[in-house]
Amino acid sequence: MLIAKEKRHSNIAEYVLYMWHIEDLLRAFQFDIDMVKQKVIDGFKADTDTTKAITDWYESLIHMMHSENLIQKGHLQLVKNNVSEMDELHLDLLQASDHADYLKMYFNAKSNIDGFRAKSNNPESTDIQVCLEGLYSLLLLKMSGKEISQATMDAMNSFSQLLALFSQKFILWEEGKLDL
After folding, report:
1. How much is the pLDDT for 2?
2. CA distances from 10 to 3, 139, 163 (A)
3. Which residues contact 167 (CB under 8 A, 6 or more apart)?
4. Is 0.70 topped by the overall pTM?
5. Rounded Cα distance, 124 and 50, in Å
6. C-alpha dihedral (38, 146, 117, 70), degrees to nearest 10
7. pLDDT tens digits for 25-77?
């Protein structure tokens, strides 16, 4: 909860990746809140009120994942809504003539986006989804100790750079400070 809240306000891409990780973590713990408390919540070493708020947050996520039938796979609607907002802003930025920095970063990543999309199970994924899915796949590969080629690292670096700039613009957009 604490990390998610901070990431949601500071970097929308990191927030989405973090929430995907939390969804997978809850699945790995078989939605057992006692295991979540033992393996995650207790690690915060927070005061009683904060610990209760964190526990309530995880219990809420577990409830939402059950009610949205996300037991095996999929993402919470609240996270998908954020990705949809990101997609809309991305398209607006591509159309805006005064965001040359974004266009340049996008075209640096475009061939990697197209390549990853072609290899994915979802060829209809948007550019933002492809970048997020690529970076999440990289995280999973690193966590499992798999070797990662330099070409893959270069592609993921282009995704990371694009999403970093995008996240800066997203914050400005949410604050009403981005001219489109």
Report:
1. 80
2. 10, 20, 12
3. 10, 11, 12, 13, 14
4. yes
5. 41
6. -20
7. 999 999 999 999 999 999 999 999 999 999 999 999 999 999 999 999 999 99
Q: How many residues does the structure list for the chain?
A: 180
Cβ pair 4, 19 in contact under 8 A: yes
- The residues, any chain, with a CB within 8 Å of residue 3's CB and separated by 6 or more, are 18
Count CA atoms within 13 Å of residue 150 on its CB side: 0
